[in-house]
Structure to design on (367 residues):
């Protein structure tokens, strides 16, 4: 039992992936077409399970535990992820990254549902073994049309404020530096309206005062997206966060275009961030963050993503920036098993800075 606990604790030390917006315009107009959450990610609904099975190389049962019998009001899912490969943050070395061990549950009654995701996290300094157990998300949701995927949604609890493209890979610059970092969940009151032609998300939030929070400020976020015909969308985003040490204001635009002929989806996000150090001399910095991706289904369960990113840490300082080129090859072997080869080349100040890189093989098992 102690050995098993040790393995599970180690497995909590890595990262978490969320949704694949690569499928939004190619498969459905909205994220709610496949997910129970209004902003995508997390638990799959009946259509989402069908999409997962339809895109996989090998057919099989798509449901939780391969068809485990559950009462109609209850949905369960779970995720286990790990990665290993080569990294070069300056010195080449082999690496292994346990990433995720979590279970999710949704109990629904008419238009109300209680949603929770629980699992393991990095042990807290000075904490007991029990501190590795936590709930990353837990919220109560009201849905105006419980049998559909449009209309009003209201959520209250611990969740990630809806903001930006919401790509699966947390290392994407607009995730990491642009207001949606890994473990950035907050306690929030959030409202969303979903329509096939547009969607709007707004939330007010406070940081978690108990758990070790990545988001240390209180504030609000908004994201609005309009569909342009069947195969394009544009969005606008904003977020304000005020903490004891840092106040940050984010603003940006998103764009998505699906080209049915080649089966290519193009996504892009650009942000401007204004950070103020509220302690000390009150220094202010303007940052620029951008990411663009092209995604193409190759058949046989294969999905290829090519992305480029840019982050200027402070526009006042020449050369204080980084660029990256990413290539990710997903193989959905079954609707439960995904293999991923993820690679990156990163330049820190391309004129004379060091080069970083990694190539990692990841396994994702959906229970």
């Amino acid at each position: 039992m102690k050995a098993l606990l040790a393995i599970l604790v180690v497995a909590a030390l890595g990262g978490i992936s969320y949704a694949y917006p690569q499928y939004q315009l190619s498969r459905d107009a909205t994220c709610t077409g496949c997910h129970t959450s209004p902003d995508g990610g997390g638990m799959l609904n009946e259509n989402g399970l069908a999409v997962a099975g339809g895109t996989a190389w090998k057919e099989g049962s798509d449901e939780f535990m391969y068809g485990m019998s559950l009462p109609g009001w209850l949905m369960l899912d779970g995720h286990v992820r790990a990665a290993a490969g080569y990294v070069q943050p300056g010195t080449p070395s082999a690496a292994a990254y346990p990433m995720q061990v979590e279970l999710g549950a949704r109990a629904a009654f008419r238009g109300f549902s209680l949603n929770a995701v629980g699992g393991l996290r990095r042990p807290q300094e000075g904490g007991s073994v029990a501190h590795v157990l936590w709930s990353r998300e837990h919220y109560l949701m009201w849905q105006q049309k419980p049998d559909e995927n449009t209309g009003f949604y209201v959520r209250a609890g611990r969740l990630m404020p809806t903001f930006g493209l919401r790509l699966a890979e947390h290392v994407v610059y607009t995730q990491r530096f642009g207001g949606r970092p890994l473990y950035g969940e907050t306690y929030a009151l959030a409202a969303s309206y979903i329509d096939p032609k547009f969607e709007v998300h707004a939330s007010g939030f406070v940081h978690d005062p108990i758990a070790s929070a990545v988001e240390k400020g209180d504030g609000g976020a908004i994201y609005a997206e309009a569909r342009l015909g069947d195969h394009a969308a544009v969005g606008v985003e904003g977020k304000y966060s005020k903490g004891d040490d840092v106040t940050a204001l984010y603003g940006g635009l998103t764009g998505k275009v699906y080209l049915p002929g080649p089966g290519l989806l193009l996504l892009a996000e650009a942000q401007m961030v204004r950070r103020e150090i509220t302690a000390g001399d009150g220094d202010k910095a303007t940052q620029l963050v951008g990411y663009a991706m092209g995604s193409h289904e190759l058949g046989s369960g294969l999905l290829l993503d090519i992305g480029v990113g840019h982050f200027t840490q402070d526009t006042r300082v020449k050369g204080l920036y980084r660029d990256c080129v990413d290539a990710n090859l997903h193989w959905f072997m079954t609707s439960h098993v995904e293999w991923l080869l993820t690679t990156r080349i990163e330049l820190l100040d391309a004129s004379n800075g060091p080069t970083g890189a990694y190539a990692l093989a990841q396994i994702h098992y959906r229970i």
DSSP finds four helices and 16 strands in the chain. The first strand starts at residue 74 and ends at 88.
